[in-house]
Amino acid sequence: MIEVQDLTKSYGSVTAVDHVSFTVNKGEILGFLGPNGAGKTTTMRILTGFMPATSGTARVAGFDVFNDSLEVRRRIGYLPEAPPVYPDMSVETYLDFVARIKNVPAEKRADRITDALEKTSLADKRFELIKRLSRGYKQRVGIAQALVHDPDVIILDEPTVGLDPKQIIEVRHLIKGLAGTHTIILSTHILPEVSMTCDRVVIINKGKIAAVDTPQNLTSQLKGGQRIRVEAQAPEAALRETLAQVPGASRVQVETTRNDGHVILSVEAAQGKDIRSQVAARIIEKGWPLFELRGVSVSLEDIFLQLTTDESSQAQPAN
Amino acid sequence: MRNLYAIYRKELGHYFVSPIAYVVIGAFLALTGFFFNFFLNAVIQQSMNMEMQSMRFGMPPDMDVPAEVMRAFFGLLSTLVLFITPMLTMSVYAEERKRGTMELLMTSPVTEVEIVLGKFFASLSLFAIMLLPTAGYLVFMYLRSDPTPPWRMLLAGYAGIILLGGALLALGTFISSLTENQIIAAVLTFAAFLLVWVLDIGSNSSSTLASVLSYLSVIRHYQDFTRGVIDTSGLIYYFSFIFLFVFLTVRSVDSMRWRRA
Question: Which domain does B105 fall in, by range?
Fold first, then answer.
């Protein structure tokens, strides 16, 4: 449905998107994961025909995004970073306007608007002025706007930003419900969001694709080993040495040493090994008071550090 | 065409759901109403004075009261237009860009020409709606005059003010498309208006440059219209002016895609 080949976009000397290639199959949800400024928004803007690429091609439903821009735009629903709403309009007037400029035939317009309102649970806000709506509701109006013409492809730039946890869950359900009939690209910097909604993930950093895979593969591959946080009252050097000798511990790093003698450090374990009980045993053996010991899940930040420092040189898009 | 109408409808609706249209139209009508009354009284007073003088000295009074009032009134309209049109155009693109809704328009299956024309005709319509009630004053004066002045004077005058307004709105929307900031748009628009206004400042001089500049002034051609003359050179001037700036606006909107947003 979407084919992107060697897409590059530079602003003067800055390259925002650097030879990005990927494909999205019909009915699939593709997640775009990356830190701010990674090139997610730029890629999406090129796909929606908002701006041209410097080089490379992108095709949506067989149409080139630059040469057949109008055909592509007819088939795309797009939610930019900030919902593109007119504050002085009511929700219904706004969706009616969007339906008109998206070429929804007059006889279908009312049904399409009602459908979009229902899908985004906005039916009771239909006649409300958009400026009176809360941030979360505005975001939903933005999503409704992307759905109102029933497009083949829906592109959502950080759709859950600014929503409360309940609304985030609703939006994720909504997005999952749209898959199959629609092809969806969404961008996010929240890892769980990707694993919960997407079929495949493109990890993008500094304009380059760092990895393309299913969320399951990525998380298991990236999580690697386990990390344990330890707080104990002990001489720093001795404690570090003791823990480094635990079989399976790969790296011991002291984070802080407090004035009262408490040392806080993190221990990384090799993949697939649970060394928590051994760490505890060693500390107790030495007679040091142990205050805390817990497993720390790997954060997105770590994954990026991992991807951009270790693998970026050889990582190539798997697809 | 349907897209153009959708944009047009939204734009015109936007003027009326926000307070802009009501404030601008209200202020405009209050001023024109006051000045029309003032001109009418002044001219009638003057004609009565002349009549009294003619009784004393036996000179025939030679004064066309409605024409005098209309000349003064259309002069006033052109001055008010100079101040009011920047307020109508300053937000047309600047606000759209600031809110990010330009991104919606530009990722919809709508061409730049449709966006620009839709917005231009919406501002022109608001301008015409604003002018319409003032025609009532003149019609009232016509019906009270004996003999009734030629209606073509009224029509030519309004054709002139619509063309003048159209030219300024085209220029103003173009300037609005260049910036994200409404205040900057308004100030630049006002400065540009003054510039195209005073180009005929050297019209008394006989040099070629002065006569060319004077021909380019937006106000010179307008004065022909207010005398009841619909001159083709005036029509060509205003249509070219509007076409030029609508075209430049289309290019400017198109270039937003190439600039870093």
Answer: 2-255
Rounded to 10°, the helix B151-176/B182-197 angle is: 130
Range of the domain at A58: 2-221
Domains held by chain B: number? 1
A52–B257 C-beta distance less than 8 A: yes
Q: What token pair was written down for B234?
A: 């005036």
Q: Are residues A71 and A91 in the same domain?
A: yes
CA-nearest residue to B98 within chain A is A84
What are the beta bridge partners of residue A208? A205
Residue B61 backbone dihedrals phi, psi, to 5 degrees: -70, 135
CATH number at residue A292: 3.30.70.3190
pLDDT tens string, chain B, 261 residues long: the values are: 788 999 999 999 988 887 878 988 999 999 999 999 999 999 888 888 888 887 777 766 667 788 888 889 999 999 999 988 998 898 889 888 888 899 999 999 999 999 999 999 999 999 999 999 999 988 888 888 878 888 888 899 999 999 999 999 999 999 999 988 889 999 999 999 988 888 777 666 677 777 787 788 888 888 888 888 888 989 999 999 999 999 999 999 988 887 754
Q: What is the DSSP letter of A318?
A: -
Q: Any idea which residue has 């898959």 for tokens?
A: A179
What are the counts of helices (DSSP H) followed by strands (DSSP E) for chain B?
11, 0
Is residue A131 less than 8 Å (CB to CB) from chain B? Answer: no
**Is residue B151 domain-resident?**
yes
Can you tell me the mean pLDDT for A179-187?
Answer: 88
Q: Considering the domain boundaries, does residue A304 fall inside one? A: no
pTM: 0.82
List, as own/partner pairs, every contact residues A122-128 make where C-beta atoms lie below 8 angstroms and the sequence separation is at least 24, other chains included.
Answer: A122/A91, A125/A91, A126/A90, A126/A91, A126/A92, A127/A90, A127/A91, A127/A92, A128/A90, A128/A91
Do residues A78 and A125 both lie within one domain? yes
Q: Is residue B261 part of a domain?
A: no
Q: Is position B260 within any domain? A: no
Contact (Cβ atoms closer than 8 angstroms) between residue B63 and residue B50: yes
In chain B, which residue's Cα lies nearest the Cα of A47?
A: B107
Residue A11 pairs with which residues in a beta bridge?
A14
- 3-state class (DSSP) for residue B142: helix
Determine the Cα–Cα distance for residues B60 and B51; give it in Å rounded to an integer: 8
Q: Do A100 and B6 touch (CB under 8 A)?
A: yes
Establish if B12 belongs to a structural domain. yes
Domain boundary among the residues A190, A221, A252 is at A221
Q: Kind and range of the H or E element at B112?
A: helix B112-144
- Domain boundary at A166, A186, A221, which? A221
Q: Which residue from A84, A88, A93 is facing B100, i.e. has the nearest CB?
A: A84
- Contact B260/A97, CB-based, under 8 Å? no
* Pair A206, A261 in one domain: no
Angle formed at CA B218 by CA B216 and CA B220, multiple of 5 degrees: 85
Within an 8 Å CB–CB cutoff, is residue A70 touching chain B? yes
Q: CA A187 to CA B80: how far, in whole Å?
A: 50
